[in-house]
């Protein structure tokens, strides 16, 4: 069929208009379908920070539910924490699963279960092999189970001297770039028993060594060990700033102790980490996967309290009653021990959409690996 010239012109204009509309619609869809990769990954680990602990801490601090920054993160799921030999995990097996994608037995640090289990390469070690910068920050001892599972491999989490040795002789990569935590006295004793000093050992391996977190801002490789608490946000912020200088990116694990055998301390640490996540998320930028989870839950429950009166005052009033103990506090009682229910995983940034539903803790390794584009 033949159209007159004016009709052909109109048809061409309509076709061009339709093509433009299709392009406008399809471009965002294509952008959404294009896989995003993270330049950096920050894993925030609340040790014993189960859902009930987060809930109680938020209400205690802010007198309203769902008041934590963690509770506003856009992607959430529930993670099974059981180990290969127990329904209730310890930190060694719990963190091994997150860092290696493999479950193991309680007490085992990043090694396969059973006698003679092989070392399991950790996400931090994958990052080291690919030239990224890496960091481990904790308010616990630097050789304890959670941080150790990032960089060491031991059949027993109690192998303190072996774990210290592996800080200097890593199995994969060239070792963590920034280590910050407690355990200064332990390090001094461990290296002294081998005829050297912690200062000599770490300096000889190319680290700045000391007990002042300000060292982090002055060296790309630093080990800061203390036996006292330190201000969390400035230290973590300085670590992020230092690691971000690497154009290839970085992996950082930040552990904050949320055990509530001392309820006030544990719940305070929840608020400290929550504030930290809020501010570090803004600092790190949109090319960073931010992931929060816990290695296991704990036997704390919010069991009482009336609205309209600060929950902290009600908790304190119960705690001062004659014969009061953490276990019989009518507002927030604590059964002193780990528990086996699923824990929350919350995420934002590239790859965060993979955190959803119920899943084993080993899947968090895959989430981080895929966010980097390594799978």
Give an account of the 3D structure.
The chain is an alpha/beta fold and about 375 residues long. It has one domain (about 40-370): Alkaline Phosphatase, subunit A. The chain is about 40% helix and about 20% strand. It has twelve helices and twelve strands. It has helices at about 5-35, 50-60, 90-100, 125-130, 145-150, 160-170, 185-190, 200-205, 230-245, 265-285, 310-320, 365-370, and strands at about 40-45, 75-80, 135-140, 180, 210, 220-225, 250-255, 290-295, 295-300, 335-340, 345-350, 355-360. The protein has a ten-stranded mixed sheet with strand order 5-6-4-3-7-1-8-11-2-12, sandwiched between helices. Helix 2 (about 50-60) crosses helix 10 (about 265-285). The longest helix is centred in the N-terminal third of the chain and has 29 residues, at about 5-35. Residues about 30-35 have low confidence and may be disordered.
Write the layout of secondary structure elements.
Blueprint (H helix, E strand, L loop, with lengths): L4 H29 L6 E8 L3 H12 L12 E6 L10 H10 L22 H7 L3 E9 L3 H7 L8 H9 L9 E5 L1 H9 L5 H7 L3 E3 L11 E5 L5 H12 L6 E8 L5 H22 L3 E6 L3 E4 L10 H9 L14 E6 L3 E6 L8 E4 L2 H10 L3
